[in-house]
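Memo to structure team: turn this sequence into structure tokens by end of day. - J.P.
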Amino acid sequence: MGKFTVVTVLAVLLLTTPAFAQMAGQSSEPGTITMSESGYHQKEMLAAGKIAEIDLANGTVTLDTGTQFTLAPSLQYTSFPALGQEVQVTYSEQDGKKVARVIDVESSGSQE
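Reply from structure team:
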């Protein structure tokens, strides 16, 4: 599937996905960052790894660590990630799911 098609499908998916509800009452954990977003505090965390699976039909991305992320409607990325690329994912937990907010594609090294 070409990059344009993948980007188009992702854009349609993100625009048609309902907004995720705010999670309340989460405890602080080591390695987390609390950031203010739209007047409320939401805990955001980081994860790194290689892209193992991209499922646009379900709106998910899975890293080689086995961690699966749901793509947020407002997902931001430095460049569209591809299978095998090293990425850093900024995410929050909502309704028991890891919701990816930002996907940074690592620019160091070669791509597989």
